[in-house]
Amino acid sequence: MVVCIFSKATKIMKYLLLAFCLCYFSIGHAQLRPAPESFERKWVKSEIYDMTWYTLRDTAQIEIGQVSTRINENEDQIMVISTVGMKGMKGTWVDSSICEKKTLRPIRHASYNQQRNMVLNFGQIVKGFYTDKRQGKNTIINDTTRSTYFDSNLYPVLIRWLPLKNGFTQKIAIYDYNPSAKIGVISASVNGVSSATYNSQKSGVREVWIVNVTDEISNGKSQYFVDKVSRKLWKQTMEAGGRNMMMVAVE
Q1: 180 & 140 share domain
Q2: pLDDT, tens digit, for every residue of 234-248?
Q3: Of these four, 27, 138, 174, 250, which has the most CB atoms within 10 Å of its CB?
Q4: 78 and 7, same structural domain?
Q5: What is the per-residue burial (b if ≥16 Cβ within 10 Å, else e) of 38-68?
Q6: Closest CA to 86 of 117, 48, 105, 114
């Protein structure tokens, strides 16, 4: 009888331990979603910064374009506008994202370039349109989502606003619309953060966080060199589809 009771008690303890481990694992690895506590508000400010875009071939750096990012904040909202000018191409690529200031919940994303136009109005049901200019095809978007998310166009900026520290990791829920790849809520992952220095031309040696990131948009990987004091993005390296690229801050 005592043996039977002990056996049952042991099984109950094993069950409780397993349940605790599963709960702890799921909490520790939960995806980051829009909320006041999902980012550090002190880093958010209106600003404009420019970066030169290079493709890397062996030891050569070949300039291929310029990227300008403008962040505007008002009482209730944050707008991020990125403008890309590529060498040898007419016109620019312009993406704008609007989100709630308090939570970063996405409101609208508009994207215009020579290949396609797209507008996404966010909510539980994402509504908008996607116009493929090369094929002359217009698609009405009416996509139901099952969870909250960040705009994929905002997440590279969000990286700078996270509570970065050595060893920091975090999965991030983002929404992306790309008919030739994935549509819907996908993941970006901060896989690790480490300390380093960056030699800037005008500001000298800066202490930075190197943030290692992957996402399901391109299945590539990036490194962000983020200033520890100001959260300025000094450099970003990218590997995707067999290509190596880099963006460097214009000082």
Answers
A1: yes
A2: 999 999 888 999 999
A3: 174
A4: no
A5: bbeeebbeeeeeebebbeeeeeeeeeebbbb
A6: 114
- Other residues' Cβ atoms within 10 Å of the Cβ of residue 80: 21
Let me know the angle formed at the C-alpha of 67 by 230 and 150, rounded to the nearest 5 degrees: 70
Report residue 27's pLDDT band, with 50, 70 and 90 as the boundaries: very low
Same domain for 72 and 167, yes or no, is yes
Q: How many domains in the chain?
A: 2
Query: DSSP code of 115?
Result: S
- Are residue 3 and residue 93 in the same domain, yes or no? no
The domain in which residue 64 lies consists of 31-249
Q: Both 84 and 5 in a single domain?
A: no
> pTM score, two decimals?
0.86
Q: Same domain for 19 and 94?
A: no
Q: Compute the distance between CA of residue 56 and CA of residue 52 in angstroms, rounded to an integer.
A: 13
CA distance 119 to 49: 24
Residues 107 and 165 in one domain: yes
